[in-house]
Amino acid sequence: MVITVQTESRNKKALVFGIVVAVVVMAVVGVGGAYWWQQRNAPSQASAADCALAQKIIDEAQQLPGDKAAVEKWRKETRDLRIAEMKDGYLGLRIATYEQWAADHATGAAEAPTKQELADMTKTANSHCTEAKRTLVVPPIAA
């Protein structure tokens, strides 16, 4: 009888210990999985130099001439600069969109983007500059 009670007590302790270990392992896996998922879905982070270049392009787009040849020259130079110097391609894509909008509007090829389109693009572009502690100021396309 004494042996049976000790064995039952030992078995209960082992069961409780096993449950505690399983819960701890599951918690660690859950936290690790959540961290991995967040990192996987977070926007890429551009450098401060990339964000500064993006702001420079945005600022230049405010003074585009109406001359199609001059606008095309600006687009080519800006595109070449962006491709050569901007390391974050996702930020580059947002800035290329703004370049296109500005050029199309300056040459009369298209209307300016809606406020919502501009707000969405701005929010996405700024999400790439969070770690660089830069906030891009993206005004509406100049008339």
Question: Can you describe this structure?
Answer:
The structure is a single chain. This protein has 143 residues and is mostly helical. It contains five helices and no strands. The chain is rod-shaped and about 95 Å long. It starts with a helix and ends in a 16-residue tail after the last helix. The mean pLDDT is 86.
Describe the structure using short key phrases.
72% helix; single chain; mainly alpha; 5 helices; 143 residues
What's the gyration radius in Å?
Answer: 28 Å
Assign an overall shape: rod-shaped
Structural class: mainly alpha
The helix count comes to: 5
Describe the main β-sheet briefly.
none
Question: Gist?
Answer:
The chain has 143 residues and is mostly helical. 72% of the residues lie in helices and 0% in strands. The chain has helices spanning 2-41, 48-60, 68-85, 89-107, 115-127.
